[in-house]
């Protein structure tokens, strides 16, 4: 996996300079920042929090034409977009990213815009989850269903903003990890990490001027343990606020933590020794099931000079495993008369009777 950084103006300033993070592979820049960089040591991804993605084709065309002016003659790695509603709706009217709601019209317009953007610019397009203030929890699944459709119909990739995911879930008083199963992990090309703030009324808000929240680090760990993260995924820390030059130690600490996390990824996927003992667990429980069906079976085995546990093991080895038979725990499952399936309690008794005829 790779390290990315949101653009900070002090990366390229002579005064109060912030050194570029170690092992950096990508910098995300906006249109304004693009003009501030004459040359960059790593690829640049043009990232736009606001676009007419949910608006009509006329707005699409004007926006794309404007973008072409900015990137002409520049080497751009990819285009990043927030999934959002119309710019004149809700908080979008105040200059922020409006709420994305995956109704059929918004999804269709998003698909048209992304395909047009890709075809015109000949660049990969990545889209990002950007909702914070979702009204109802059920909207989360509907919106992720819409994301699936958009990605499938455009072949775009996903920027998973873990901080946005956490903020949205916390504002709904729901566990953020509950949304992980909704994400199309095979499409995730980049992950965003940042801080968040909790206001006096208990609501959560995005914050790019404080360290990555512990809850976000923990969710990234969970994604790693579950094997969700692909090898070529970029993990980007969005420490974009200019005031970070006053907190260089904390800035560097987050990137050092990320590099340490990525260097240990080979050992991150969770495993369980229980899987190696599954057959033993099943055999032990099978013994309890049979003992519940047959009265005094343990005493009968003892009278034969053996033990119940030994006879269960011998039965399984000599009769079931040796011939590749299978057992059932209910007679209702014996609907196929193929001679290879047996009701466990009955077959065990038959085995004992054949082994001890007297």
Describe this structure in words.
With 358 residues, the chain is an alpha/beta fold. Helices cover 40% and strands 16% of the residues. It has eleven helices and twelve strands. It has helices at residues 31-34, 57-71, 104-121, 138-154, 162-171, 214-225, 248-263, 278-293, 297-303, 308-323, 344-355, and strands at residues 2-6, 24-29, 44-48, 76-82, 125-128, 157-161, 188-193, 195-198, 204-207, 234-237, 326-328, 341-343. Helix 1 (31-34) links the parallel strand 2 (24-29) and strand 3. The radius of gyration is 29 Å and the shape is elongated.
Describe, in short, the structure shown.
The chain contains eleven helices and twelve strands. β6, α5 and β7 form a beta-alpha-beta unit. The protein is an alpha/beta fold and 358 residues long.
């Amino acid at each position: 996996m790779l390290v990315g950084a949101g653009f900070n103006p002090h990366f390229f300033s002579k005064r109060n300079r912030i050194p570029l993070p170690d092992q950096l592979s990508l910098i995300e820049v906006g249109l304004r920042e693009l003009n501030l960089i004459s040359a960059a040591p790593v690829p640049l991804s043009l990232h736009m929090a606001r676009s007419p993605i949910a608006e009509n084709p006329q707005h699409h065309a004007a926006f794309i034409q404007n973008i072409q002016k900015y990137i002409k003659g520049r080497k751009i790695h990819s285009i990043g977009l927030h999934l959002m509603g119309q710019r004149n709706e809700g908080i979008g009217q105040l200059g922020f990213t409006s709420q994305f709601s995956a109704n059929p019209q918004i999804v269709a317009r998003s698909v048209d815009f992304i395909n047009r953007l890709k075809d015109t610019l000949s660049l990969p397009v990545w889209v990002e989850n950007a909702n914070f203030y979702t009204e109802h929890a059920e909207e989360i699944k509907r919106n992720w269903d819409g994301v699936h459709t958009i990605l499938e119909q455009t072949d775009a990739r996903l920027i998973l903003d873990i901080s946005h995911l956490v903020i949205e879930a916390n504002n709904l008083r729901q566990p953020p990890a509950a949304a992980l199963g909704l994400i199309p992990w095979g499409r995730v090309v980049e992950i965003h990490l940042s801080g968040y703030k909790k206001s006096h009324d208990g609501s959560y808000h995005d914050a790019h001027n404080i360290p990555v929240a512990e809850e976000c680090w923990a969710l990234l760990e969970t994604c790693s343990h579950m094997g969700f993260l692909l090898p070529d995924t970029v993990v980007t820390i969005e420490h974009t606020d200019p005031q970070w030059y006053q907190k260089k130690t904390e800035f560097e600490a987050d990137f050092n933590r990320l590099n340490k996390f990525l260097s240990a990824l080979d050992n991150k996927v969770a495993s369980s020794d229980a899987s190696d003992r599954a057959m033993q667990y099943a055999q032990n429980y099978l013994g309890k099931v049979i003992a519940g069906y047959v009265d005094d079976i343990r005493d009968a085995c003892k009278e034969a000079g053996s033990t119940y546990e030994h006879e269960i093991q011998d039965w399984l080895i000599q009769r079931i495993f040796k011939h590749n038979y299978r057992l059932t725990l209910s007679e209702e499952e014996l609907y196929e008369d193929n001679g290879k399936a047996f009701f466990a309690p009955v077959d065990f008794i038959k085995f004992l009777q054949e082994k001890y005829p007297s």
